[in-house]
Amino acid sequence: MSKDEYGVLLYYKFASITDLNSLFSFYHSNCNSLGLLGRVRLSPNGVNVTVGGLLSALEKHIEAVKSNSLFQGTDFKLASSHHPLNDKVAVECGFTSLSIRVVKELVTFSSYPLLNPPEVSNAGRHLSAAEFHSVLQSARQLMKNGSPTDDKQLVLLDARNLYETRIGKFHAPSVETLDPGIRQYSDLPSWIDDNSELLRGKHVLMYCTGGIRCEMASAYIRSKGAGFENVFQLYGGIQRYLEQFPDGGFFRGKNFVFDHRISVGSSDTSIMGACLICGSSYDNYSSRCRCTHCRILVLVCDSCQKHRMDFGSIPSVEDGELATVLDKNDLKTVCSDSKISSQLPSRNAPRKLRILCLHGFRQNASSFKGRSASLAKKLKSIAELVFIDAPHELPFIYQSCTEAKNSCAPPSGQHAPPPENCKRKYAWLVASDFGGKVEADWKIANQPFDPLQYQGQTDGFDVSLAYLKKMFSEQGPFDGILGFSQGAAMAALLCAQGDKLKGEIDLRFVILCSGFALPLADFGQKPINCPSLHIFGSDPGKDRQITSHTSRYLASRFEDGCSVIIEHEFGHIIPTRSPYMDNIKDFLRRFL
């Protein structure tokens, strides 16, 4: 390589950085003095760098970085390339300027707080390109020192996004390859959680573009404990593998890269990708065509672009430049083709969240749906709300005039409406003296209504649990539960069950409105591990049913770092005006 050639440098390093300001100053000074352009990301946990410039300048940068003991053992991946043009590809990839940022995470591993964030120190064992190739070549050959052995099945796990795997991936006839089909890297933890049984007890060989994504993902798999210990990752990623095996080895197609090169291939010129419109072989993302609905990159060949149906233009995600976009109407006639539709995310295809809604005590699905109409309307673009009645049917009761100022009794000389003309009321939890038998007519309450009656309604959980298992089986899957008042208490009890309900009631999140914790053993002393949104009134006395202190205590029972609290100035309601509605949407968008 001539030192006057242009090149691209990639490297990352996980390490504890105590002085981010000094490191920021170093990169700002060094990169500008050497004329380097690209992205530098700094966090308290390390650095992630992709920069381009003259090869001679990149080599000087490497020497300067190596002088800092922090970067001992860093793998600097340097490759020659063409000079970036000032086009939309270079702009979108950030190769027309220098961007240095301090971030929380080097790579965003999850879009919502994880219950047990992975420690990169627990990452899978690194395999060199030669070792990785050897394992694939003799998948069941015994290897020493903790390497894969023939007593457990070997699987390949691709840690990249769907649009990357469409144009290239590893293929070994004797080894199962798992392609999560995710839209973005932050979807991978959910895929791992949902498909953990595909990995349990197996030797998992992971790979990605340059290695950094495997560091976090392999640590996350290993954090699951027994049965997930044997995780290995390709050191240096696909880039190092193709350098070692220029004919491609077990890798087919091209390696998608996040710079102006777009993709890097081997001497094998076979094409894996296909045009979304006509289905012909094609693997060039230079047109930056995207689906308008989910923004994922899609492949559209030159011919179809020339004669395509109308395309629109919208700003690209980061840089505000215009990118070509494929409208969903253009997909109507082609998505039935399995080869073509495989370009769109399978599990993570754009869809609304499905949320099961649990009403409060002495309510029903119909009344709760009516009270939540404004909420449903404002969430209609991202969520579908499903309402069901609780299993415990309650009797029709009213208080006599002598027992309550605001009597529910029929006026003097009149009769209560026939029960068949009234909508039944239900509960998730009932008092210990609840007989379960519903009277056919109205009856007078045997005591005044007690605003704290919910504290004594602790029976009937097993019946409600069995009922909800049936609902999840027949009407699911559901992404989460929204519970109001007693419905929130019931939802919290489900969360407290932990892994006991896995496979029957799987929840990605809960929304608890005017919720409360019941004095049951299920809550115990162990924090509840489930992403949660808690909505309740902030002012004492505004919510006359459930005090703010009670709801705040329920929120405290959830794991630190995975709960969000929205306090409002209203009463026993779910607020739908700004800024509360914006906060609710922000929470839900984490799971889209």
From TrEMBL:
InterPro entries reported for this sequence: AB_hydrolase_fold, FSH-like_dom, Rhodanese-like_dom, Rhodanese-like_dom_sf, Rhodanese_C, TrhO, TRHO_N
Domain of life: Eukaryota
Domain Rhodanese: residue ranges: 150-250
Segment forming the signal sequence: none
Lineage per the UniProt record: Eukaryota, Viridiplantae, Streptophyta, Embryophyta, Tracheophyta
Entry's transmembrane regions: none
CDD domains given in the database record: RHOD_YceA (cd01518)
Protein name (record): Rhodanese domain-containing protein
Any Pfam family hit: UPF0176_N
